Write the structure tokens for this entry.
Amino acid sequence: MKHSISTLPLNKTTVTDAFWRQRMENVRTKMIPYQWQALNDNIPDAEPSYCIRNFKLAAKVIAKGKASLGADDTHKGFVFQDSDVYKWLEAVAYSLSRHPDKELEALADSTIDLIASAQMPDGYLDTLYILGDIDKRFTNLKDNHELYCLGHMVESAVAYYTVTGKDKFLKVAQGFVDCVKEHIGKEEGKIHGYPGHPILEMALMRLYDVTHKEAYLELAKYFIDMRGQEPLFFAEEDKKNQNKNWWKDSYLNYQYYQAGMPLRQQKVAQGHAVRALYLYAGMADVARETDDEGLLQACLTLYKNVTTRQMYVTGNVGQCAFGESFSLDYDLPNALVYGETCAQIALVFLSQRLLKFGLDGHTADIMERVLYNGVLSGSSLDGQSFFYVNPLEVVPELTKKAQPYTHVKAERQKWFGCACCPPNFARLVSSIGSYIHTIDTDTDEQTVATHLFIASKADFIIGSTAVNIELSGGWPWDGNIEVTFHSKKPVEFTYAIRKPDYVSSYTVKVNEKEVHPKLKDGYLLFERSFAEGDCISYQMELPVRLVRANPRVREDVGKVAVMRGPIVYCLEEADNGKDLHMLHLTEDPKFGITFEPQLLGGITVLMCTGKRIDTAAWDADELYQDNAALTEKDTPLIWIPYYAWDNRRTGEMRVWIRG
């Protein structure tokens, strides 16, 4: 097993891509300031966060004691509210890495000062218990999210330290981790538990990467190995501390928490989707660092189940509103979907980690699909309203008046009381540069791999030579990519660039001469010496594709989804009128392809002729008619990218159409 494949630090990659720069600038100039106001409860008509308020009160307790609190000075918001500011700080760190901003950095520093002032002398820091009953800390690891909040603290602190070099926040996080280690672990007298909501596992691996302290690796491995072992810790914890098992009488039970069985025995993704995917990402990290082939294979089995049997065409995962969970293989309802934005983000995290084990074009294809569709749909184009749930079919009236659909919103929301998704979105988009390439440094001939066609400039050290690799092009609208190499002297290495599964026709030139590189594991391989100015021209044809689902997917039999390149398209009421269910494609439709720079931030629009059922002859008072003939009329169909829906006015939307 290789440990030599790594991603590039953010300060080694400059994103120049028009598509992603626009979104990164949105995060920097709109989303980060907006979310700061939300964390401080300053967004009119939005649900309050209470996050910064809780930290201020906790700092008051640390400085002056509980007696200083007023009657209303209790913890407010969800038990995991602390995590929202940590994710915000992580997004800030990534933004600062590419756009230094003294004002923003000073705001981040002052926020870190506030967090530090709320830390107890033994390192503990969770406002729920500091403002509540501190004697009950670590008595409900299953539900109360102390270790989840710590995980986000660690992720954020590592990011801030890596970007700024300032270690105050890192020391705060290490203090809390060390406190956890004093109370939780395999040793006699400690709590033999693990997080109810995973993320600390992969966070500890990031902390291990920057500190090289074996204790952090060992704790992450312990959490992975202990889950689901008998006697089941959460059952014992519930009994000992009289905690309620909220899922006891459901089919989820402790598997909701990813704790119903040992991880190496699981074959099917079950339970809470975000918990599952964060945990699988931690599994991958631990497997890679410890050479645990069995753990890797367990992780790959679960990844395959998610991506081949429980993933929507948009990359959305976690199909069931009950428990925000996975349900059954091939159960993919479009209007009742959950598809939490955080679940898609977690799938990107997992996919990136699996690419550190070697070239795998299919995994990179999935990462791309999720990023350009399921993730981007989570935010409006202006970065100031958000989807928690990401449906593939919406009828606004149903979401308001039919109970099974009420978890779905037909328009993005300003904020959420449970606001995990918006700052999660911000931290991923801000760090998108680290998902483009990997480098394998432990081979006789080093390999640089390009997984995403995001225009950028990336700095590598290959052998002892500095090499800059410049990607340019208009992806995802344009299939023409150029890769230009810059170095002071020729350097020999292998360059690998992905050939997407959906691309069947392409041409490749090196320095304007057509070549036919070897295709392996979904990548075109160039094994050669690269000199200053060498250029690979990679031209991929991107026709419109009609995609069908496996017939086992009941919802989609007889229907097609429209795609071009990595982009999934949808029909929206703003372009096609109401009653989208009455539309269908003609046989062998011909699509027009037009780039509209002024529409929805600049998108490629697809147009074709379809059919609409004509209801003029149907008596509105007749619900059923014997042998009634349906008449149809030609109608133009206008398709926009799925991620861009609900950015004009509220209305119906549909991805799958009869065809």
Observations:
- The chain has 17 helices and 23 strands.
- The longest helix spans residues 18-39.
- The chain has a mean pLDDT of 96.
- The first strand starts at residue 5 and ends at 7.
